[in-house]
UniProtKB/TrEMBL annotation:
It comes from Mortierella alpina (Oleaginous fungus). GO terms for molecular function: ATP binding; protein serine/threonine kinase activity. This is Protein kinase domain-containing protein. SMART domains: S_TKc (SM00220). Pfam families: Pkinase. Residues 525-537, 699-712 have a biased composition (Low complexity). Residues 1-21, 171-194, 468-630, 645-739 are annotated as: Disordered. GO terms for cellular component: cytoplasm. ATP binds at residue 154.
Length: 739
């Protein structure tokens, strides 16, 4: 360590002399151990197969956990220095590939086998060597045996994730759990129905959205149910981390001015893309900047990142990141809401300082002391020829977040653009590759375009899924009874959040939209539902026709020879408004497939399977007749209105009738069942009341009054609505807006 570093850092000699032994198999949970790696010939194992690192200097890091904690988690990286024989920045920027978004696959039942060479194999991925370690497990260099393409496979210990998740539950509340902050659509990783993948759901959700050359690409997520491991398959960044950063030692292989600019420009583009899409990384540091074979910088590790649902919102109370890279406004225990964008910019400043000078701008012995130094002291800068660089560092490491330089301003910085000679690609070009998931905001927009009834219907179908929340499923055997009245407000909100996520995901696939459109546009245009949508009530058909309503079953039993097959009746009975349940069911399936989330699919199929496998008795007990969910926009109360439509099925001859005839007859019979009338009556009769019970009474009384004299077909279609739940505040606000 040179004298400048020593003077600059003020690090006690005892720490500076701390050379620790290398040990590949250390317990990473231990607070007092060091996890380090050594490799044959000092060569990054990932490079040994086909890409010998001729220009690469591999170094090892050996920080004590005390020291590395300043730099973030149990970082134990393979550290490589920047090669001076790189392609020019201009040529690299010219070749920036804005590739098409890749779907992230999720596999729940993966298994690890051993191949003929004695290597572990995970699906098609042969795990060749360990190339790094993180807080939750190892990172392997893997090769796809079919394509021979290299990947970095990150292995997570589920036990460690769960432990962390539980700790976060206390610390951050349900929305802050798991790796990656997911915003309000977060599923509950600890719920009994959660999949192990939920432990990393936040990180996966964020990574799924991102398609940018400077952000590491996630390809696949796999859970091995038989053991403690879970895997994320990333694009391989062959050249490893940007630079080893130590609290104690200066890295001698610092970047040249030109390389520094190139790396920083790429960081700016990556961060601009993230921020533009309302994602705050929160842990920017050289350790989390890897380089690919062509030296494209890749931002990695979204484990503490935060995704904001509201455009432009970035205010957060949470502290995360590595102390040495934390912005001063985060360096106090009682900090209120801070701008996440500004904190990322600060970390970029620390990172730029590091890669230029090989050491940190602020160093101290303890985290608390480090916080104080960052908050109160000024950094010193080594002798620097380029005043533009000094100025930029000053603007990045501005203690007042309001005065700190913004990404927008960075674009025109004299050092960054080399006085305009090396400009960045335009913001439009850089951020054009839109995120793939549709947000709640997109959904609002879609609903507002009321002309797009298909979209509206899809949203409603998805909303239905939200109503059939895990809470209600857990607590009730009824498929329609909906929500557990005793569920806490928090759970209710969370359930609504889940439905938000589902809606968003359903809206993703344009394929499914076009598939929906033929039938649904037709039925929506003829259906009374369309008119009711324009009122302030939102209808959600709850029952899937394949639940084989009690009345259908009864009738089938009573007249075994006089009916077309039950499923035909169900199909044909679905003309007009009552067709919704079937299509909603179909839509469920489509959406489940689209969601890619196996757990969601399983959830659906579990429902379906359990429905199918119920014996007749329990099916009769549990299945409720078809009906509709009606939600009062003013109160948020949701009622279920059974339709009993199938009882009105007309007599059918013993001979098999052509489908068209059956369809005609059934649809004729059920045409009067348009529930618009009931909706209106419910709306008026169930005027907002202070308690659910009174709502229920009101609702029931409406039902009773309107259904008296059950002999009339119309009346038989108007049984009593009953309270089934309440919309979450967020959901209500959303529908109110769209209405
Ligand atoms: N995509 C990748 N390509 C190449 N090497 C990688 C890749 N991802 C990670 N590595 C290597 O593995 C090391 C550990 O990465 P990892 O993200 O697990 O650790 P970490 O930064 O401590 O994060 P976490 O807190 O998520 O565990 C990295 O420093 C790097 O050397």
């Amino acid at each position: 360590m040179d004298s400048f570093v020593q003077a600059h850092s003020g690090i006690p000699p005892t720490i500076l002399q701390d050379d620790l032994p290398l040990d590949m198999d250390m317990d990473m949970d231990s607070n007092n151990t060091t996890t380090t790696l050594s490799f044959e010939n000092g060569i990054h194992p990932a490079m040994m197969d086909s890409n010998p690192p001729s220009t690469l200097t591999e170094t090892l890091s050996s920080f004590s956990s005390d020291r590395s904690s300043f730099l973030g988690s149990t970082s134990n990286n393979l550290l490589s220095t920047f090669s001076s024989t790189t392609s020019t920045p201009a040529s690299r920027r010219g070749s920036m590939q804005f590739t098409k978004p890749v779907e992230v696959r999720e596999t729940l039942d993966a298994s690890v086998t051993e191949n003929a060479d004695g290597l572990r194999q995970l699906k098609q991925y042969v795990l060749k060597r360990e190339i790094g370690r993180g807080a939750f497990g190892k990172v392997h260099h893997a090769v796809d045996e079919n394509t021979n393409i290299s990947y970095a496979v990150k292995e997570f210990s589920k036990a460690k994730l769960r432990k962390k998740d539980k700790a976060n539950l206390f610390k951050l509340g349900p929305r802050g759990r798991g790796r990656g902050r997911r915003g309000p659509e977060a599923p509950s990783p600890l719920s009994s129905e959660s999949s192990p993948l939920d432990l990393i759901r936040g990180e996966v959700a964020i990574l799924k959205k991102l398609h940018h050359p400077n952000i590491v690409k996630l390809y696949e997520v796999l859970d091995v149910s038989s053991d403690d491991s879970m895997y994320m398959v990333f694009e391989m960044c062959e050249k490893g981390v940007l630079m080893p950063v130590s609290l104690t030692e200066k890295c001698e292989d610092v970047f040249s001015d030109e390389d520094c600019r190139d790396v920083f420009q790429q960081m700016v583009l990556g961060i601009e893309y993230l921020h533009e899409h309302d994602i705050i990384h929160r842990d920017i540091k050289p350790d989390n900047l890897l380089r690919s074979e062509d030296e494209t910088v890749k931002i990695v590790d979204f484990g503490v990142s935060e995704m904001f649902n509201k455009k432009g919102d970035d205010m957060t109370k949470k502290s995360a990141g590595s102390p040495a890279f934390m912005a001063p406004e985060l360096c106090r225990h009682d900090h209120g809401e801070v701008s996440g964008r500004a904190t990322d910019i600060w970390s970029m400043g620390v990172t730029l300082y590091c890669i230029r000078y090989g050491l940190l701008p602020y160093i101290s012995e303890s985290i608390l002391e480090m916080h104080k130094v960052i908050r109160e002291e000024e950094y010193t800068i080594p002798p620097e020829n380029d005043q533009r660089f000094v100025d930029l560092i000053k603007k990045l490491l501005e203690k007042d977040p309001l005065k700190r330089i913004t990404i927008e301003q960075l674009r025109n910085d004299p050092w960054l653009t080399n006085d305009g000679k090396e400009p960045l690609i335009s913001k439009e070009e850089n951020t054009a590759n839109a995120v793939t998931e549709v947000t709640e905001e997109d959904l609002r927009g879609a609903i507002q375009k009321i002309g797009g009834l298909v979209t509206v219907f899809k949203a409603i179908a998805k909303f239905k899924r939200g109503i059939k929340s895990p809470v209600s499923r857990r607590s009730s055997t009824s498929t329609t009874a909906g929500r557990d009245e005793s569920a806490t407000e928090q759970e209710k909100m969370q359930d609504a959040d889940e439905s938000d996520a589902t809606i968003s995901q359903a809206m993703t696939s344009s394929d499914s939209t076009s598939e929906m459109s033929k039938d649904e546009v037709k039925e929506m245009s003829t259906s009374p539902l369309s008119s009711t949508l324009e009122s302030s009530l939102v209808h959600v058909s709850l029952e899937e026709t394949e639940d084989k309503s009690e009345s259908t079953k009864n009738q089938a039993d009573a007249e075994p020879t006089s009916h077309p097959p039950k499923q035909d009746i169900n199909e044909t009975a679905n003309e007009g408004i009552n067709e919704k349940p079937k299509d909603a069911a179909n839509e469920e399936t489509k959406v489940a497939a689209n969601e890619e989330t196996k757990d969601a699919v399983n959830e659906e199929s579990e429902d379906a399977v359990s429905d199918e496998t119920k014996d007749d008795k329990s099916a009769e007990e549990e299945a409720e007749p078809e009906g509709y969910q009606i939600c009062d926009m003013k109160t948020g109360m949701c009622y279920w209105v059974p339709s009993k439509k199938v009882k009105t099925t007309p007599p059918v001859s013993t001979a098999e009738e052509p489908m068209e005839d059956v369809e005609e007859k059934v649809s004729e019979t059920i045409q009067p069942s348009a529930p618009t009338i009931q909706v209106a009556s419910v709306e008026h009769a169930t005027a907002p009341s202070s308690t659910d019970a009174s709502h229920q009474d009101d609702a029931s009384s409406v039902g009773q009054s309107s259904s008296s004299g059950a002999s009339s077909p119309t009346q038989s279609l108007a049984p009593g609505p009953r309270l089934v739940g309440k919309l979450s505040r967020e959901r209500l606000a959303m529908f109110e807006k769209s209405a």
